[in-house]
Amino acid sequence: MTRDDFKEWFSYHAARFPGVRTWMAKQESNGTNPNDILDAWEIRLRFTDLRDAKKASDAMFEDAALTPSYYEKHAPTVAMIAQKYAAKPTYIDGQRTALCGDCGDDGYVLCWHPESIKAARKGELKRLTMAVCCHCDTGESRKEGINKRHPETVPHYDPQKWRMIRGPITPEEETEFMEWARTLGMQQAYEEFSQFE
């Protein structure tokens, strides 16, 4: 779930549970910044698909038994319920579809290399690529396989940091990549990768 996805989910969820906004506003008088709560919730839901999170919110709204007594438990409950939806593969014409649209359940996402991003920010094209671990459950398990002691240090796919490559690198893809690197200035990806050099 991206930041925009999280904002969309929160608006959707708060429309079903209007008291959540009131509860958050009251937390400030208790010395807790509501933005800190939202940040924690976003972290909790980062590997949850937006559609699954919305389904989970709907399930909580329709079934009081699924709704926790305390608002602070809403995000963890949504994540738990959403896992049940995500764990069910879809079949089309008898063929199993991938659960993750970014990696196809492989656990790795092919991206432009940080050296290519660095060069593109200077207006140069370097055709270097690398695979980073996906944000899905399979990608998370790949991270642990790469570095069991510190899986959090393994680069992982985040659309804010990495430019995914879908298919062959065409002149159009190169142009789009150069524009992406110039406009977004993906210093974060380079910094994240440079710790391994």
Percentage of helical residues? Answer: 40-55%
Largest sheet: 2 strands, antiparallel
Radius of gyration: 19 Å
Q: In terms of quaternary structure, what is this?
A: single chain
3D structure, described in words:
The protein has 197 residues and is mostly helical. It folds into 2 domains: 84 residues, no CATH class; 87 residues, no CATH class. 52% of the residues lie in helices and 7% in strands. It contains 9 helices and 4 strands. A two-stranded antiparallel sheet has the order 1-2. Helix 6 packs across helix 8. The longest helix has 14 residues.
In brief:
With 197 residues, the protein is mostly helical.
Highlighted features:
197 residues; mainly alpha; two-stranded antiparallel ribbon; 7% strand; globular
Topology readout:
Layout: H1 3-16, H2 19-29, H3 34-44, H4 50-62, H5 74-86, E1 91-92, E2 95-96, E3 108-112, H6 114-121, E4 129-133, H7 137-146, H8 171-184, H9 187-194
Antiparallel strand pairs: 1-2, 3-4
Helix pairs in contact: 1-4, 4-5, 6-8, 6-9
